[in-house]
Amino acid sequence: ADNVYTYFGFWGTWCSFCVKYLPYSDSIASLQNANLVYVNFGDEEGKAKEFISQYQMKGRHFKMSVSDQKQIGITTFPGGIIIDQNKKIIKANISPDDALNYLKSIN
User: Fold this and answer.
1) DSSP character string of the chain
2) N or C: which end of the chain has fewer CB within 10 A?
3) For the chain, how big is the Rg over CA atoms in Å?
4) Which of 90, 92, 76 is nearest to 33 (CA)?
5) Do the beta carbons of residue 9 and residue 78 sit within 8 Å?
């Protein structure tokens, strides 16, 4: 079977660069070798859902608290990690544009 990777994209409505980089993240969802999972930090659920709808964000969506963010060491927004099908982290603290380029290069 072909390798399939998952990009976990970290974002918040308070992050102006997150909006700027959404097209890169959303493009990941259209790649055959990749899945897209958005992880929101620090927003109330209603505010996050409104943002997701407004920007028509693709992929699956999860929410974590700011304390979760600090506990797992997420410091870059927008940012994310890429894991392989064996759940091994391939890239960490990678921006959506760099993630898209990386995933295209290994397609």
Assistant:
1) ----EEEEEEE-TT-HHHHHHHHHHHHHTT-TTEEEEEEEES--HHHHHHHHHHTT--SEEEEE-HHHHHHHT---SSEEEEE-TT--EEE-S--HHHHHHHHHHT-
2) N
3) 13
4) 90
5) yes
pTM: 0.90
Q: Which among 3, 75, 87, 1 has a CA at the least distance from the CA of 37?
A: 87
Given the structure tokens 């506990």, which residue do they identify? 71
Cβ atoms 40, 59 nearer than 8 A: no
pLDDT digits (tens, 9 = 90+) for 21-41: 999 999 999 999 999 999 999
Structure tokens at 85: 């099908």
* Structural tokens at position 52: 């997701």
What tokens were used for 2? 């072909």
